[in-house]
Amino acid sequence: MTFWQLIIREIKAIATDKAIALTLFGGVIFYSILYPLPYLNEVPTKQPIVVVDLDHSSLSRELIEHANASPKLLVAAQVGSITAAQQLISESRAHGLLVIPANFKRDLLTGKGVTLAYAGDASYFLIYSDVIEGLVTVGMDLNQQIQLKSLLAHGQSRQKAEQTIDPIHLNSVPVFNKILGYTPYVVPGLFLLILHQTLLIGGAILGAGQWRKQGYWSDVGAVKLVCGRICAFSIIYLFFSSFYVGYCYYLYEVSLLANAITIGLLMLPFILATAACGLALSCLFTRRDLPTQVVLLASMPILFVSGFVWPIGLIPEPLVWLSQIVPAIPAIMAMLKLNQLGADWSVILPLWLHLWLLFAIYFALACYGFTRHKRPQLID
Amino acid sequence: MLATIRRELNALWHDPWLLALVSYIPLLCALSLWWLFSAGIPRQLPVAVVDFDHSHISRQLTRHIDASASTQTIQFADHASAEAAMSNTQVFAMVTLPQDLSKDLKQGHTPTIDIRYNGEFLLVGKLVSSSISHSLADALLELARLKQLAAGIPVPQANINSSPITTQITALFNQNNNYVGFLIPPIFVALLQIMAMLIFANCLNREMAQSGYQQWLNSHLLRNVLAKVIVYTPLVLLQGCFMLTWLYLYQGVPYAGSLGLLVLAQVVMLLAVWLMVLLVFFLLQDSARVVSFCTALFAPAFAYMGVTFPTHEMPLLARLWRELMPSSHYIESHISVISYGDSWQMVLRQSESYWGFLVLIPVIVILAKWARKRQAEAIEVERHS
Hints:
The structure holds 2 protein chains of 2 kinds. Chain A is of the alpha/beta class. Chain A has helices spanning 3-16, 18-34, 58-69, 82-90, 104-109, 125-153, 158-165, 182-210, 222-251, 260-282, 290-305, 317-323, 328-340, 345-379; strands at residues 47-53, 73-79, 96-100, 114-121, 169-175. A 4-stranded mixed β-sheet of chain A has the order 2-1-3-4, with helices on both faces. In chain A, helix 3 links the parallel strand 1 (47-53) and strand 2 (73-79). Chain B is an alpha/beta fold. Chain B is elongated. Classes of the chains: A alpha/beta, B alpha/beta. At the A-B interface, helix 2, strand 4, helix 6, helix 7 and strand 5 of A face helix 3, helix 5, strand 4, helix 7 and helix 8 of B.
């Protein structure tokens, strides 16, 4: 069998194996829709809050109106006591709380300080940060209005008063993911992980099913079989990665700062290393239903250790070291830096070399494992 | 029945992978995931400061950012190097203190401080940006007060003028915004569901691999399946109890309600998981495909729980898909018991949302009959050949 014939046989074997085809073709397409689906609305909009107004003055009503007009808040209810507000929050009918104290307006007019109380349900982080951000903005606006009025009443000029209140303008803007959307945050890393996990499963199931049987694979030398199989998977994943990195990234409005050639250069060692890793993994299994389970159990740890959900600096170092053996880890970081943060190639060069090193190691391991699995057959 | 249970226990004892799934694998996964997030509260996140002013005031502002527990500053001489550090994830935000900052302040102009934070790292970016804004707002308040004092306004008046309204911000139910209390419960629930699915799929698949499969299907199928439910429900529940104990009793994450109630809620979740696995098992009748299909169903459970991204903001299709996963039903009870201290009546009311899973029972019965027929045909074909 020539090398080309071997590759074609391999691709056929992959496509006709229902379990592998289900994981590879089904999984890759299914996950590309299913994973981003909850996040399609990108940004949480108005969060319901409950207001406890103990003042009932024109100023407190104005404050409530301002809160309701804020793009982040919706005044869902007004109640008379904090206990009643708690009830609403525990029924999830409101996620935030604004308490306006009694004598709010009178104290402000007579020049005494008053305290507004804000609270948010921190069981849900995005909701909490939005509720507090919204309430703080509303409170600050009111604060400035009152300061302005007071300074004007003291006879200061308008320009000078405004400058006193707001001496420096803070201009805080997110970069790279300008809308602070959830899909641009999750999709780049997650999609590489999906490619990684399905490729591992595919490679491992194919090997696990073949060790104890005879077939085209029995007549081929171990190294040639490893090379042929890596090529076959790489050709299939060339299409999958083009679909994910080329089309889905674009579809889900992920920021794309790198050009196609550098992305291709990055994907090449990633796919090769992952395919080799899958083949090396296949040497450990003889049951076809095991690889999926092992890879599934590893998914969550790999996702969270990859550094885009939780900063790497805060992850215990032994876990970070251990994670370096997984091809997805350097690949996700390199992709984020290159494509989403617009870093230079020189920045990701160490990660790129890391991927090639992993490829070399897993290739050697796969060759060793394949040779060992073939030995008993030679004796037969 | 007792004999069937004994047979199941015996089979479990001789199946190393299944034994691993009910014993050390969940412990290893749960503890490593917890360890990963054990820092809990992000501290000392690096922020680039580009100070073009080099004045007393600009240094004071930098010190204010540095003083916050969640940020630490790194000085950069120019924009290019700070930007490079941003795209290399060395820093999560960049603060530019413009030239003539202090001069503008003294002359009554309003200078602008630019803050750029990394939105690609959404949670960290938001945290850093709000921390910087708070630090700078504090520093500016102090500046405004000093200016008023310089203008001859008495101290008490200046204090009130500079901030007539003070605010008190409370994070309800998770008081110091700890990520362990926020992320670990849904991660553990997702893990528990995956473990339950794998354990049940494996013990069903084992029957299929054995020679007596036709008999297992044909005689007393209900009893055979019930025996598995009786054996594996307590074993998986033990894992759930371990996760609850580790998090709330040993690590001391605060909780309001009763943990015993959550154990009951987990039983309901497990029963729903068993139904889903049975459905897939009788439908596909191939061990590798059963595992693949169940994996596809349950792997994205974490995204659909609605803890990171609120449920009511999901599109309709996602909210429907969410209903298919027992974990998204359970997490509601979990949060309401842990955060709001809800009683059993509330948990009972939430459990009613599982009613859809009951529809699966007749479907499973039909599929089981179909599986019987297919199995008989397969044996027939084998005999002929």
